[in-house]
Amino acid sequence: MKPLKIFILSLILLVAFFVIAGQNLTYDTSIIPQKENNNNENYQYHALHSRDGIGKFYLGREIAKVMGHQEFLWLERPSREQQEKPSKVIEYLNLKPTETIADIGAGSGYFSFRLAELVSNGKVFAVDIQPEMLDIIDFLKEENKVNNIETILGTIKNPNLPNNSVDTVLMVDAYHEFEYPQETMENIVSSLKSGGKVVLAEYRRENPLIPIKTLHKMTKKQVKKEMNKVGLIWDKTVEILPQQHLIFFKKI
Fold this sequence. Notes:
It contains nine helices and 13 strands. It is an alpha/beta fold. The protein folds into two domains: 24-58, no CATH class; 69-250, Vaccinia Virus protein VP39 (Rossmann fold), CATH 3.40.50.150.
């Protein structure tokens, strides 16, 4: 293909990209009063925002809408292992059988049940803000006679975990949906034991080719900025997943 044709094709693709991106914006007049009254040093409210977000911004990032419990089958899709390699996430957690781990945004319990097998003498706190999700986990617990998972109904500001009780907190494609990320993370930090770790799996926002809505992806830089805000120390980033960052932090 001649250079001119390549240039024209590239230009067409670039224009199409910005047209599609523009279609993701919506004007939500219901949020205008909040913009005036609720802006503070942590959160800002914008009337012009993505249709996939809530119009609320934290440290420069718009917070994404929460995936509803009606979509729980997507979490359990058979292709998930091939697409995301969740078994690799669990492997790199390097859990001990006696550990206590919190699965925040547990959904239908996809990770909770797999973690429970590894901490046979420990416990998994399966936390979600949607009681319908926890109902699914409780049903599956009873059906499969799993005794080391405890479901906890969290709030938009607090996962309601016991203080100083958790060795590891795992958040898989969940953190970017927290309506109050700073308050939620401060409470998570309080629940961690000294030396405890926080692990996030988030789709790579640096890569526009990953077929996930933009607000449901995060950059490594943004994740580090937000965890640093609540006093967590970056430990390592493990790039072993096909589409997601796996980022580790520690409580000192």
